């Protein structure tokens, strides 16, 4: 956020009219998260000598959370690929989208992948509808999230491999009697990680309120250190992001400890392949501009 | 806050022009408190079906916490009589404002009362300076806080009597060896409860940015039930407001339990006098309007 504030300040300074006495623009930053987030810790972690105003906004960003035309710049990083809810079909044992023996749509039948995709499109549609109302005409919406080229199977990416390893780890634990098979069958991670640029263009055009200023796939490569991958750091990050889902479903910290211990080992056992899996364009960078609002 | 939102909606409906198609005004409510407040509990306690937007704003309201001209209505209830810090003179043993054997300026020498008053005026000055910047021209600032008529000694009000009883209770506990006398001498409650309408007029006029729309003293009478006073409810309320100060200074919950047990008894022992002490004009209701801002 501070980089954004600095960039806007610099642009303002560069473009201001020398004939008009200088005023410093003021910034008000709103931090949004679900109401279950710990806003107290967020507020205490903000620097005391900040030169911007802050506010915390609780609530789902799929809904309206700000007044009409009240925002100039919206930034969301690594959130939009998290689904607010799993597609209902995944939870019905007789549905063709019942995801037996897997934890994600990686390597799953089309019915499973389609259910994830529909849910993702529905949530992004709601997200764009809400932001279109809240942004001023000319306002910017910047999104960083997971994505893939349209022709790259998720199973050949680092995340796809991780979901495969999670599934095989859990099935091992089923065979050892540590958890039940039905628990694995009904467990699905609410992550859509293969939005393609083409999909994004389609959703944005259906919304109709935004122009696309930038739309790029890039390599996040956070875990690539030279030619090697820092597996423990990657696994710690993955656990921080996902352990809530595991604990809620399997009901015990011990299961999660065991899953991530085995998962780390599986990744280390494949260390010669990791650089190739990690070296893919799986991060979407999207810059949208709210079209001018023409009042009637 | 909801009463305020409803009142503004009604006024809007009553004054709108029949020739212009109806739009519903949107409301964004900002809740401000110190960063140590529990915003998580606040957010979870908000109704889910609210028809207004919310945000939490951490920080002292003596400073700027909102952008310039960004607020239309500010409301603060029972906060402004709490001092952010005690006057430094009260903490110096050789100062004429050393408040020996008391916990407040009630019944104290003028030096003590003057130190409290200076601190209060300084804090209200800062508060008004900040709000004058943040409110739009024509915006409203409504304050409810403790106050007294200029000629009413605090010692003849319910709060003044409570501070007297607190001091005598603590000195009893000194004699019984439960606490040290030096602890009582250095303990002062950061409350200024005798702002008079004349004092408020003076501070507002020095600020110069507000017109005074209403300025009234009234009886809060919360503890007056018919002719009797609900002492346990009053003491519970007083404890909720002040126990943090006691615990921080005396370092133990047991001392606070003992203080409020004895304090309750002292009030019950004087129950015939309580209605008279409570029946005073000790609540200030202040309505200010930000003067129009004329840009150069």
Automatic annotation (TrEMBL), chains A, B:
GO terms for biological process: methylation. The keyword Methyltransferase applies. Keywords: Magnesium, Metal-binding, Methyltransferase, Transferase. Signal peptide: none annotated. Coiled coil: none annotated. GO terms for molecular function: metal ion binding; methyltransferase activity. The keyword Transferase applies. InterPro entries: MeTrfase_7, MeTrfase_capping, SAM-dependent_MTases_sf. This is Putative S-adenosylmethionine-dependent methyltransferase. It comes from Morus notabilis.
């Amino acid at each position: 956020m501070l980089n954004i504030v600095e960039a806007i300040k610099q642009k303002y300074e560069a473009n201001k009219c020398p004939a008009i006495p200088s005023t410093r623009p003021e910034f008000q930053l709103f931090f949004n998260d679900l109401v279950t987030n710990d806003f107290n810790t967020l507020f205490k972690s903000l620097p005391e000598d900040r030169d911007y105003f802050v506010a915390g906004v609780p609530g789902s960003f799929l809904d309206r959370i700000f007044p009409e035309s009240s925002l100039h710049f919206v930034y969301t990083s690594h959130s939009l690929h998290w689904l607010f809810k799993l597609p209902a079909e995944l939870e019905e044992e007789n549905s063709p989208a019942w995801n037996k023996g897997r934890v994600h749509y990686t390597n799953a039948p089309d019915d499973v992948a389609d259910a994830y995709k529909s849910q993702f499109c529905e949530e992004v549609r709601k997200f764009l509808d809400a932001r279109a109302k809240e942004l001023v005409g000319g306002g910017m919406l910047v999104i960083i999230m997971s994505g893939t080229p349209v022709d790259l199977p998720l199973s050949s990416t680092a995340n796809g491999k991780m979901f495969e390893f999670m599934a095989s780890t859990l099935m091992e634990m089923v065979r050892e009697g540590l958890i039940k098979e039905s628990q694995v069958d009904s467990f699905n991670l609410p992550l859509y990680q293969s939005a393609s640029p083409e999909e994004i263009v389609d959703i944005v055009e259906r919304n109709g309120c935004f122009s696309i200023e930038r739309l790029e796939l890039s390599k996040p490569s956070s875990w690539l250190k030279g030619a090697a991958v820092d597996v423990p750091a990657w696994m710690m990050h993955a656990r921080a992001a996902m352990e809530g889902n595991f604990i809620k479903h399997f009901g015990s910290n011990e299961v999660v400890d065991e899953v991530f211990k085995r998962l780390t080992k599986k990744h280390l056992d494949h260390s010669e392949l990791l650089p190739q899996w990690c070296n893919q364009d799986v991060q979407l960078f999207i810059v949208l501009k709210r079209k001018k609002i023409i009042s009637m």
